[in-house]
């Protein structure tokens, strides 16, 4: 079938054997916790997908990465969502000091060489909680030590993570709190994982609560940004948001694609016009790919991030319409006979819950269109 063929070809080229490994398991096994998908991803070398080749990674371009995520979303939604969080934590570090050695290079090398999974502890999951004002705080201690306290919920890959990359608030010398990114080993004293995810939908992503109590941070693994209370993203955060919005959108387009495939390949499905199920998804993916192309050719700016947000929110609308059309086309007997269609239709709804929520970006995007800096709601 030609639908999503280029995405699956990219997956097979960069992570050969992964799709075949996942295909051995039924969807309900892949989507439960613990899922065999995470181990298969690690074994295939997926942890190094977006790590530059000079650090021992696969060096996938943004375009290749979004195609991989769409293919994974079509095969295993939980894995696509979970690995988006891993890539979000890893990819921006390659641009911190690209021409120098240092802790970033050592970290990226270890992620690729040792196949380490990095959980993303960035602000998310609380209604009204500002994404750039996390629940984890950092405090300076005598001798230059920094300790962390707080929690992140949900936190994907919580059970399988080797490292946690968490956004924290850190008091600055000028008295203003700044956003910082801290990377801590999963086994560090004071790190605890607690059950949190109570729905079977996307349970395989291992999205639990990670609690930090007086956790010491290696000073070399603390990256201080320029983000303050105004919530205007700096370069590191623009990089992270660009990667996240594209990867998470592609992942859910893959999930919706899996639902569409079940319609057009079902007995009698060839009688329906496939445009209602596939063309909208492909159009949304083209918007994602356009931003990914731009990431390879132009400077990563607020304007490019605004384009990524536009692609993501447009995809949400397309996915919602497509999921509804697919369930209607599959009909009542398919709904009764197999849970897969209803499961996939439920899973695609998750895109609307990832930050920044569309409603919270209404004012920032309007202000940006009128000449203000782009704030993240």
TrEMBL record:
<dbReference type="GO" id="GO:0050660">
    <property type="term" value="F:flavin adenine dinucleotide binding"/>
</dbReference>
<protein>
    <submittedName>
        <fullName>Isobutylamine N-hydroxylase</fullName>
    </submittedName>
</protein>
<dbReference type="InterPro" id="IPR013786">
    <property type="entry name" value="AcylCoA_DH/ox_N"/>
</dbReference>
<feature type="domain" description="Acyl-CoA dehydrogenase/oxidase N-terminal">
    <location>
        <begin position="33"/>
        <end position="94"/>
    </location>
</feature>
<dbReference type="InterPro" id="IPR037069">
    <property type="entry name" value="AcylCoA_DH/ox_N_sf"/>
</dbReference>
<keyword id="KW-0560">Oxidoreductase</keyword>
<dbReference type="InterPro" id="IPR009100">
    <property type="entry name" value="AcylCoA_DH/oxidase_NM_dom_sf"/>
</dbReference>
<keyword id="KW-0274">FAD</keyword>
<dbReference type="Pfam" id="PF02771">
    <property type="entry name" value="Acyl-CoA_dh_N"/>
</dbReference>
<keyword id="KW-0285">Flavoprotein</keyword>
<dbReference type="InterPro" id="IPR046373">
    <property type="entry name" value="Acyl-CoA_Oxase/DH_mid-dom_sf"/>
</dbReference>
<dbReference type="GO" id="GO:0003995">
    <property type="term" value="F:acyl-CoA dehydrogenase activity"/>
</dbReference>
């Amino acid at each position: 079938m030609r639908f999503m063929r280029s995405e699956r070809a990219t997956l097979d080229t960069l992570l050969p054997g992964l799709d075949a490994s996942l295909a051995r398991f039924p969807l309900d096994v892949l989507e439960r916790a613990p899922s065999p998908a995470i181990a298969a991803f690690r074994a295939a070398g997926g942890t190094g997908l977006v790590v530059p080749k000079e650090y021992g990674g696969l060096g996938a371009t943004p375009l290749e990465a979004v195609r991989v995520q769409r293919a994974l979303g079509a095969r295993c939604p939980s894995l696509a969502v979970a690995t988006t969080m891993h890539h979000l934590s890893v990819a921006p570090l390659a641009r911190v000091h690209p021409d120098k050695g240092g802790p970033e290079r050592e970290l990226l090398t270890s992620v690729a060489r040792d196949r380490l999974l990095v959980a993303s502890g960035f602000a998310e999951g609380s209604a009204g909680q500002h994404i750039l004002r996390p629940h984890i705080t950092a405090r300076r201690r005598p001798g230059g030590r920094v300790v962390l306290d707080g929690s992140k919920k949900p936190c994907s890959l919580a059970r399988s993570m080797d490292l946690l990359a968490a956004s924290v608030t850190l008091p600055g010398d000028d008295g203003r709190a700044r956003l910082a990114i801290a990377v801590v080993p999963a086994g560090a004293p004071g790190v605890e994982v607690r059950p949190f995810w109570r729905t079977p939908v996307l349970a395989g992503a291992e999205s639990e609560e990670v609690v930090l109590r007086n956790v010491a941070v290696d000073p070399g693994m603390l990256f201080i940004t320029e983000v303050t209370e105004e919530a205007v993203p700096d370069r590191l955060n623009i990089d992270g948001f660009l990667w996240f919005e594209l990867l998470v959108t592609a992942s859910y387009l893959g999930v919706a694609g899996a639902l569409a495939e079940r319609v057009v390949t079902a007995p009698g499905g060839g009688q329906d016009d496939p445009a209602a199920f596939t063309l909208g998804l492909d159009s949304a993916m083209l918007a994602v790919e356009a931003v990914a192309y731009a990431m390879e050719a132009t400077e990563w700016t607020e304007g490019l991030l605004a384009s990524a947000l536009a692609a993501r929110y447009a995809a949400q609308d397309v996915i919602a319409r497509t999921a509804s059309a697919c369930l209607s086309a599959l009909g009542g007997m398919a709904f009764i006979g197999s849970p897969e269609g209803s499961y996939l239709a439920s899973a695609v709804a998750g895109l609307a819950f990832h930050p920044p929520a569309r409603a919270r970006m209404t004012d920032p995007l309007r202000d940006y269109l009128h000449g203000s800096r782009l704030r993240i709601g």
